[in-house]
Amino acid sequence: MKTLLLYTTQGCHLCEQAEALLLPVLDYLKGNFAEGISLQQVEISESEALVERYGVRIPVIRVDGQEEELAWPFDQAIAFAYLQGALAS
Questions:
Q1: Cα–Cα distance measured from residue 9 to residue 73, given in angstroms and rounded to the nearest whole number
Q2: H helices within the chain, ranges in order?
Q3: For the domain bounded by 2-88, which CATH number is listed?
Q4: Can you tell me the distance from the alpha carbon of 28 to that of 66, in angstroms, rounded to the nearest whole number?
């Protein structure tokens, strides 16, 4: 199973919006992607390195184990295209 990481922090309204738009995309992909995919939120405030890397860019998504990321702003179509490409590789 693949994991989609959502870099976020408590009280981030953009992160809440990103999660809401990602859920239908993930549901669709779960039905059409043999390995499956899950969503895992990563709280950046727990790591100084993560705050430095993502602090002004969150929400950011990344398929675990891959380098390519997608930072906000994105919509469902952009997230879907990113995930299709990331899951195909």
A1: 16
A2: 13-32, 48-54, 76-88
A3: 3.40.30.10
A4: 21
Per domain, the residue ranges of the chain are: 2-88
Rounded CA separation 50/29 (Å): 27
* Helix%, strand%, coil% for the chain, nearest 5: 50, 25, 30
pLDDT in tens, the chain (89 residues): 889 999 999 999 999 999 999 999 998 888 776 577 899 999 999 999 999 999 999 999 999 999 999 999 999 999 999 998 888 87
The whole-model pTM stands at: 0.92
